[in-house]
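Researcher: I'm preparing a figure for a lab meeting and need a structural model of a single chain. I don't have an experimental structure, so a prediction will have to do for now. The sequence is pasted below. Please return the structure as tokens so I can convert it later.
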Amino acid sequence: MNIQALINTASALVAGDKGLLAMDESTPTCNKRFAALGIPQDEEMRRDYRALLITTPGLSAGISGAILSDETIRQRTKEGTSFVNVLIDSGILPGIKVDLGLKDMAEHPGEKITEGLDGLRERLMEYAELGARFAKWRAVFTIGEGTPSQSCIETNAQDLARYAALCQEVGLVPVVEPEVLMDGAHTLEQCSAVTEEVLHEVFRHLYAQSVILEAIILKPNMVLPGLACSEQDSANEIADATVTCLLQAVPVAVPGIAFLSGGQPAELATLRLNAMSVRCKSRLPWALAFSFARALQQPALEIWAGQATQVVAAQSALIHRIRCNQAARRGDYHSTDEHS
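Model: Understood. Here is the structure written out token by token.
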């Protein structure tokens, strides 16, 4: 393990005003999104779509790293160039999602556990040989009556820490993703309390596993009211609640926090990130960045809709969303940017 190389990679992922492009959807999830738009659900169409994303002109101006799935990291363009080499040649760090998805947690109705630790060391070594420089593991927590339970929090936190230690062992930067879901009627205050509790537990286990905090990226949720909550707080209130929570729970050694979008509408996720930059950036010990999937991809996917004639227009939409989020990192985003 080259500690300095890991630290350099982690710092590069959140440098400047760039962010991460999360394109690591599982095959079932990708197929579901394709089906909603009438796109054939097969490997060739998935390859064509992902090729559209990674060959977007100027992508590296706003994207530091791309998170791939197992299928995508092995794919090639129609010209025969591996997707990994396309990214590297453009100056983008390739990453890989390594968890194997969510399963029901035994004896804990409504709660999920993430699987994938069995054989992970060997899979990480293979991904590193394929060219990956960082990895990602997601755990989820649902706010409800009696949830998340302490058992769910502790088990998922321990698994995140074990994953992170294995990543660093083989030379990959771990992106640690504990997501408190937006589903439910919980308030902003409830989300803040649960998010803080989850993060404290995650970092307790990261410390216990001797994970080098300077060589990780945290990918958390923003602190948000539930989708069914009657009171939907303003962007400024969400920014203040999110930053206050993070300052209570995230050590200063962590180089960067790259928010997930979690199903937020694209423009709203950008607006909330911008509010954090405007109101709080001067007092933050870590960089605030973005690691969005749908909030970057969805407009491009809808324009493309499986049509080769729409590739250029779809790529333009992707670049537009990236530039909006770059502006948000600087605190320069305005809603009028969406129509410029």
